[in-house]
Design a protein that fits this description.
single chain; 3 domains; about 35% helix; Helicase, Ruva Protein, domain 3
């Protein structure tokens, strides 16, 4: 009675009319009470205290809190690009060649082709889809070898990958061609790895209303409100007209509106985009930042540092700003990535703004998001009956 039970994808459990499996898992996984677990089918108490339970999940948010408290969470980061290339070269390619009856002397998948598969045809934390794409290449090679006028050896390079698999599925999101006003680059964690998060802010004459779009969750919505309150308390230092908050309507949008986004790690990037718009200062396009912002302007630690930095490196970002409290996570980032980009740590938003924001610009400079002029103030009403 000491087996290992693997509960795969425990985050996919859902309750229906037949019951709630999460409630049963509370008793099964709790070492304080699973020594006399009673199954409702055989009605016999079973000692589960010596069973080793291993559960896997892609997303912790969908696991009920009481059940999550009974688990020891071990975070396993996704593979880096270098690791994926090594796995593909040493394991995936030889296995697919064997399954398709191909010899090394018959087909060769070049390193450039594997780079293309990883960068432009898959976006995942593991290598499942990468294995499928390699299998597609091997099937194509097997058809050619089995046909008439078969070549002695087939070499699959990057050009052949595009010819076989079609146009690239994923673009490498390079930062904007030049610094823009009201557009900043943040870093996000996703179940399939890190990703860039472009934050756009626009202003139009109005009455100080706020509009948020892009499927923002409650935590991210609060981050926007926190960023605005922080900026309003620092208008003099940031060179912003205080009247702008009452006489402009602000619209903040995060592209990829079909994907739900939540979390506090975009606070600094949001504050940079809003400050950039209201002070007419462009945000550098080659810098990405992450960190939770407080009302005092402090930058708090966030998670997923390794995957976020790898995403920035993959997209061509040359400099990233991370919270000072995440300095301990630097050792998780591959040394090759650290050597290829500059990683800075900041404790306050003001430190990040010194690097992120450039000098004020004029409308003649050709910036599309130049702040429109403030509308005239409405006339004040005068009470003639006042004494």
């Amino acid at each position: 009675m000491n087996p290992v039970f693997v509960l795969d994808e425990i985050d996919k459990m859902s309750a229906d009319t037949r019951g709630d499996p999460a409630s049963a898992m509370l008793e099964v996984l709790d070492p304080e009470q699973n020594d006399e677990f009673v199954d409702h089918y055989i009605e016999v108490s079973v000692d589960l205290s010596k069973v080793m339970f291993i559960a896997t999940a892609n997303n912790l948010d969908t696991i009920p809190g009481p059940l999550r408290d009974r688990m020891e969470i071990i975070h396993v980061p996704g593979y880096t690009e270098i690791e994926k290339l090594q796995i593909a070269r040493k394991y995936l390619v030889p296995r697919q060649q064997t399954e398709h009856g191909l010899e090394d002397s018959q087909v060769e998948i070049t390193q450039e082709a594997l780079h293309s598969l990883v960068d432009h045809y898959t976006r995942e934390a593991g290598v499942r889809n990468l294995d499928r794409e390699i299998a597609s290449l091997c099937r194509n090679a097997a058809v050619q070898i089995a046909g008439k006028n078969a070549p002695e050896k087939i070499t699959i390079d990057a050009a052949a990958v595009e010819r076989i698999l079609g146009p690239e599925k994923y673009d490498q999101e390079i930062a904007n061609a030049k610094p823009e006003i009201g557009v900043s680059t943040g870093l996000a964690w996703t179940p399939v790895g890190g990703d860039l998060l472009f934050i756009e802010v626009r202003a139009m004459p109005g009455k100080g209303n706020r509009r948020l779009t892009g499927q923002l969750g409650d935590v991210m919505t609060e981050s926007v409100q926190t960023a605005i309150s922080y900026i309003r308390s620092r208008t003099k230092e940031l060179g912003i007209d205080p009247a702008a908050f009452d006489r402009y309507d602000l619209h903040l949008h995060l592209p990829a509106g079909g994907i739900k986004k939540d979390g506090p790690s975009a606070g600094v990037a949001m504050a940079a985009a809003i400050t950039s718009l209201l002070s007419n200062r462009p945000v550098r396009h080659d810098i990405a930042c992450t960190g939770e912002l407080t009302l005092r302007g402090r930058v708090l630690a966030v998670g997923g540092i390794k995957t976020k930095v790898l995403a920035a490196h993959r997209a061509g970002i040359k400099m990233v700003f991370l919270p000072e409290r995440n300095r301990k996570d630097l050792e998780d980032i591959p040394q090759s990535v650290q050597d290829d980009m500059e990683i800075n740590f900041v404790a306050t938003a003001a430190e990040a703004f010194e690097y992120l924001l450039g000098d004020p610009v004029k409308a003649s400079d050709g910036y599309s998001s130049f702040l429109p002029p403030l509308p005239p103030e409405p006339p004040k009403e005068v009470n003639i009956n006042a004494s």
